[in-house]
Amino acid sequence: MMEAKDVTKHYPQGSRIVKALQGVSLRIEAGEFTSIMGPSGSGKSTLMHLLGALDTPTSGEVFFQDRPLHKMSDRELAALRRNRIGFVFQFFNLLPTLKAVENVALPLLLSGISRAKALKPAYEELERVNLLDRAEHFPDEMSGGEMQRVAIARALVIHPEAVLCDEPTGNLDSANSEEVLKLLRKLPEPGKRSVVMVTHDDHAARFGDRIVHIRDGRIDSEEWVREKPNYAITAAHV
Ligand SMILES: Nc1ncnc2c1ncn2[C@@H]1O[C@H](COP(=O)(O)OP(=O)(O)O)[C@@H](O)[C@H]1O
Ligand SMILES: [Mg+2]
What we know:
Layout: E1 2-13, E2 16-28, E3 33-37, H1 44-51, E4 59-64, E5 67-68, H2 74-83, E6 85-88, H3 100-110, H4 115-128, H5 144-156, E7 162-166, H6 174-185, E8 194-199, H7 202-205, E9 210-215, E10 218-224, H8 231-236
Helix pairs in contact: 3-4, 3-5, 4-5, 5-6
Bound molecules: adenosine-5'-diphosphate (ADP) and magnesium ion (MG).
Adenosine-5'-diphosphate (ADP) is lined by residues 11, 13, 18, 20, 38, 40-46.
């Protein structure tokens, strides 16, 4: 569960202030796939950064699994980002000097797990995204679609409770986009893992359960693309 309660984000820009978010409230249940859609500059990335504890709001509160982020120390926030949230970005952010499998293992290596122990789950995640045959390749030997699937495997290797994606298909052709979107669609787990995808593309947004439309830093409207899951029933039966 992730929640933003009446958040604003203001950026000083020279002598004026850019109001990137102007009072946004949004609750995302565990297991939900939420698309956040809006034109360029509407505040999508800013909202995703707040939900993922990459940045702090100017006012308002953000919660992750009911814990208020503003009450966490920097250490706790770093641990939250490292161990519980998987991030996927438009330009993949793979390290060019590491092979695919090493890029996937990186979050585990950074949290102190030995190379020998980190590589096994990294291979497993590459298999999940159907790229085991690319494990020993470097990013510049892969297509954009393959690089994004490696980035998704890297996001998954920590078994995150949330996967946050910022324009994950923004740099891909339509065939590769489709493959990445189908993969993202498989990630939500009822009562467990949620997926948030920021996009300006209506076709991509429709892979979510719900589309939250954002405009000028405010939620404009929201629509359920798929039937709203009954989380109460799911929770009662686990
Ligand atoms: N670090 C920053 N400093 C100043 N202005 C920023 C910063 N980040 C975003 N903005 C501004 O905030 C607004 C929303 O940006 P952003 O959240 O990136 O929108 P989107 O992801 O929807 O394109 C834009 O006007 C952008 O220029
Ligand atoms: Mg953006």
